[in-house]
User: Fold this.
Amino acid sequence: MDYCQIDNNRPADEPVIVCGSGIAGALLALRIARRGPVTLITKDGLGHSNTRYAQGGLAAAIAPGDSIDSHIQDTLAAGAGLCDASVVADLCAAGPDCVASLTRIGVAFDGAPGAPRLSLEGAHSARRVVHSGGDATGRSIAEALVSAVRRNPAISSHEGHAVVEVLVRDGVARGVRAVGPDGVMTAHVGRAVVLAAGGAGHLYPRTTNPLGATGDGVAVAGRAGAALADLEFIQFHPTALALGANPLSLISEAVRGAGAVLRAADGSRLFTPDDDLDELGPRDRVARAIFRRARSDGADVTLDLSHLDPEQVHATFPTIVDICAGHGLDLARDPIPVSPAAHYAMGGVLSDLSGRSTVPGLFVIGECSSTGAHGANRLASNSLLEAAVMADRAGDLLVSDELLWPIGPHSAPVAPATPVAPAGGGFRDRLQEAMWTGAGVERDADGLQRAEARVAALGAPPSREDANLAYLAELTIAACRIRTESRGGHHRTDHPSPDPAQVHRIAWIGGRPEEIPVPHTRVAEEVTA
Assistant:
């Protein structure tokens, strides 16, 4: 890889602009505040992000008998042949240090000091997921980080401000424009820009993501000329609570890891001992099994914990117990109706593990990035790990005297934002329904063509967030149409098997697709055979 140096010798009082205050944005802000000022911009309140809603934990190979190599192999297998093996190796190797650094910041992981309690989650070959507060890991991490951010005088926080544009000058990202709660647009200029703005779960009418997950970071980066990648790969969590309004409450995979079983409407086990799949199988396969059975029966699949110790269930999953109680259900005794829901985007802004996008000076970290670590399907609890590791790696670069940037062909001219129209007409509802029926848990050519036509016919979006969702919907549908195979989080019923000829990633540069080769690995060869 060749690198060029970009001008990082800006005035000492010029801040780094960090957009987003989940685990990625907050950790990075704290890391680089040691060198100089940080402007932290967040659309909601500090810490109101996907991180806060993460019931699952953080994966790290720290148990006796576990190994970093085993974590690597599990990640590669889940990624269905499209992981960048070198990125996966770096990510998994950083797991133990990541747990230690979060502990130093003030995150109290469950278990004895120095010996966290570990849980088993789907597609992991060992217990390696650390939790905090049982099923409240994300909230515990967010609260610890927000407390540290508020105490740091070098960090200037702008809550309730939505980033609408990356300012690119002479080919280098130099700042952003953001609109405040009063509707006033403000320019923030700095020596680098970091987008840590989460995913785009609200492309779909069923999602576990908070209301702010509207793809803002990916959309503004794409319009600034950054390459996007892997947009066809959406992870639908198998077990969202099928009650209430969007966003749906998550029933963590750790519940199935503790022994809960899935049952069809007639009370029979969804998976039998003769099946090649069980409750802790890869998320994409479990989600499809639930989706198909519910469609066939005309009734929800349910989660059953009645055979487990109720006191232990209540003690281990207090957050989920409270959520279910709000719907008149006892998690330990009642059948809990569940449904697949959009949970995590493997795709986003093409970057390396240090967050460097294809636009010099523009870092993208956390879920809005696409590093190749997750391939076609993210291994459970690798997302918090990736966000923390990317924050650390980006921080190393931003506190250094020289800022080197990879030289590559993946860039495009800056594009104008989509105009918005007066609110009304159910724009988002119609977009979400088009995505769910045409580019949801299962896809085919006819459904994708209909979804494309329905999105194109929506007209001008009524808000900037809706404009971002429409921008990503168009590219996601196009990516799904190009990939005529099934792999990981992308399942085509008209092309139900993986195609060895399609072991490549699809990047989007100025709205045009480009293939990116994937380094050959033994796991890739096995998955695509």
User: Anything to note?
Assistant: The chain has 15 helices and 24 strands. Residues 464-482 form the longest helix (19 residues). Residues 232 and 453 are 17 Å apart (CA to CA). The radius of gyration is 22 Å.
